[in-house]
């Protein structure tokens, strides 16, 4: 793997850069495989060969080899997320700078496909996580991955970062995993090298500044910004840190790291802002950069006017209560003919978000009501808000894969709605009729490979 000579030259002054070892590890062809376990869906991951824990992330695990994840039903059930190990350092940063997670409003600004969003949802279990993606088709992937993860206090939006300026001081924490030139992923995706250039680094630097400038007004005074890239370039990392401190009234925050982890601590040139570099010759992971800041500047006070969310009628609520066993403390509302639920303490904030943003998903979709019939939704099957009560069809591996392909499968179930499960985790719904079974797995998510 011949790395771009311009990249190698630009990194000569980067803290911790060791050219020979860096080039050797890229030439080795070594692949690091890692996952992050969903703590709300504890299950035995027998199909995976777990090697060891990732030291900077409580739920991170290294695997000895890369399986064909598509053919593991537990992935589709949301038992784990396939995520690059270095990027899980976000967990370490969050636990150190936001030790009290309750009641926090958190924005993941550039969220697709959902790795950092689901990590945030696992930490801020009593908070509200808003995951935004500006590109429409990537926002659809984000919705899918968030649905599988199953978190109830979670919102997915499809907006330009500039739209968040209409929510001044709304968020306690903002994570910006900024679009970058991608040099940190060369070992994982060699094709990315063909798209890399010095010009793309400069353009990414400008784009990163624009995204941050658009988003920072919605961070409250004293709030936390976590900035990250998968780039080695100083221009996209330390230079942005200097710009945040010098031009955006942000204060750098240092983290405590174990020297055995191999993470390189760095400081920006002008402001000595702290940053953390991940080199694949020093850590078991890919290239990554992360820095943490606190907002010093004040934010204009604003009295938010919430949109009037259409709450579920008494009749609709009764239909749901009579049919679906749910955890307590939920508010039910109607969106496009479907009944959705979110923890009641966040209902006002949903109205505020809806007044300013395009929301693709808020909370958990429970069901559609068709006259007296209650048709349970796929989101409900994968969520932790559903209590026991429905009959269960537990499938072996081959039949579970048939279900996920939306094909016929061998089953034994009770007439009516059944939860289809594998390994004790729900995959979705099936309706058992006297002479057949209807497979309700979402067609757009089905496995296409045989």
Describe the structure.
With 450 residues, the protein is of the alpha+beta class. It has three domains: 86-295, 3-Layer(aba) Sandwich (Rossmann fold); 303-387, Roll (Nuclear Transport Factor 2, Chain: A); 390-450, Nuclear Transport Factor 2, Chain: A (Roll), CATH 3.10.450. The protein contains twelve helices and 22 strands. Strands 5, 6, 7, 8, 9, 10, 11, 12, 13 and 16 form a ten-stranded mixed sheet that branches. 45% of the residues are buried. The mean pLDDT is 95.
Question: Which labels suit this protein?
Answer:
single chain; 450 residues; alpha+beta; Rossmann fold; Nuclear Transport Factor 2, Chain: A; 10-stranded mixed beta sheet; 22 strands
Per-chain topology:
Layout: H1 5-10, H2 19-27, E1 33-37, E2 50-53, E3 60-63, H3 73-76, E4 80-82, H4 89-97, E5 105-108, H5 115-123, E6 128-132, H6 136-149, E7 154-157, E8 171-177, H7 198-215, E9 219-229, H8 238-247, E10 250-253, E11 264-267, E12 274-278, E13 288-295, H9 314-323, E14 330-335, E15 338-343, H10 347-356, E16 359-362, E17 364-370, E18 373-376, H11 378-381, E19 392-394, H12 397-404, E20 416-422, E21 425-432, E22 437-439
Parallel strand pairs: 5-6, 5-8, 6-7, 8-9, 19-20
Antiparallel strand pairs: 1-3, 1-4, 2-3, 7-16, 9-13, 10-13, 11-12, 12-13, 14-15, 15-17, 17-18, 20-21, 21-22
Helix pairs in contact: 4-5
């Amino acid at each position: 793997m011949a790395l771009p000579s311009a990249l190698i030259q630009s990194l000569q002054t980067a803290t911790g850069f060791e050219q020979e070892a860096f080039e050797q590890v890229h030439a080795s062809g070594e692949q690091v495989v890692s996952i992050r376990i969903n703590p709300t869906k504890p299950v035995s991951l027998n199909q995976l060969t777990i090697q060891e824990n990732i030291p900077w992330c409580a739920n991170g695990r290294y695997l000895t080899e890369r399986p064909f994840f598509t053919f593991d039903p537990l992935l589709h059930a949301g038992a784990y997320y396939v995520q690059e190990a270095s990027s899980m350092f976000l967990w370490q940063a969050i636990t150190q700078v936001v030790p009290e997670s309750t009641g926090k409003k958190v924005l993941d600004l550039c969220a697709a496909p959902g790795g950092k969003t689901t990590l945030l949802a696992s930490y801020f279990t009593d908070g509200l996580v808003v995951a935004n993606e500006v590109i429409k088709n990537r926002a659809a992937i984000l919705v899918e991955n968030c649905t599988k993860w199953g978190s109830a206090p979670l919102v997915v939006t499809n907006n330009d970062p500039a739209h968040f300026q209409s929510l001044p001081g709304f968020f306690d924490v903002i994570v910006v995993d900024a679009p970058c030139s991608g040099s940190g992923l060369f070992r994982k995706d060699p094709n990315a090298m063909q798209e890399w250039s010095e010009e793309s680094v400069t353009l990414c630097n400008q784009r990163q500044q624009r995204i941050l400038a658009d988003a920072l007004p919605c961070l409250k005074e004293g709030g936390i910004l976590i900035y990250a890239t998968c780039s080695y370039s100083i221009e996209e990392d330390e230079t942005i840190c200097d710009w945040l401190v010098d031009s955006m009234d942000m204060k750098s925050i240092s983290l405590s790291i174990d020297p055995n982890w191999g993470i390189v601590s760095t400081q920006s040139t002008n402001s000595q802002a702290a940053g953390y570099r991940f080199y694949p010759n020093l850590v078991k992971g890919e290239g990554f950069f992360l820095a943490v800041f606190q907002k010093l500047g004040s934010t204009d006070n604003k009295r938010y006017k919430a949109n009037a969310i259409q709450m579920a009628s008494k009749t609709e609520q009764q239909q749901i209560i009579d049919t679906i066993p749910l955890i307590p403390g939920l508010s039910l509302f109607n969106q496009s003919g479907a009944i959705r639920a979110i923890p009641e303490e966040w209902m006002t904030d949903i109205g505020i978000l809806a007044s300013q943003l395009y929301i693709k998903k808020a909370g958990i979709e429970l069901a559609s009501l068709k006259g007296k019939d209650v048709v349970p939704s796929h989101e409900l099957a994968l969520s932790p808000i559903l209590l026991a009560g429905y009959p269960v069809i537990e499938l072996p591996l081959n039949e579970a894969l048939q279900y996920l392909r939306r094909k016929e499968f061998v089953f034994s179930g009770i007439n009516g709605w059944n939860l289809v499960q594998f390994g004790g985790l729900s995959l979705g719904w099936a309706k058992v009729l006297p002479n057949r079974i209807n497979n309700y797995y979402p067609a757009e998510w089905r496995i296409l490979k045989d």
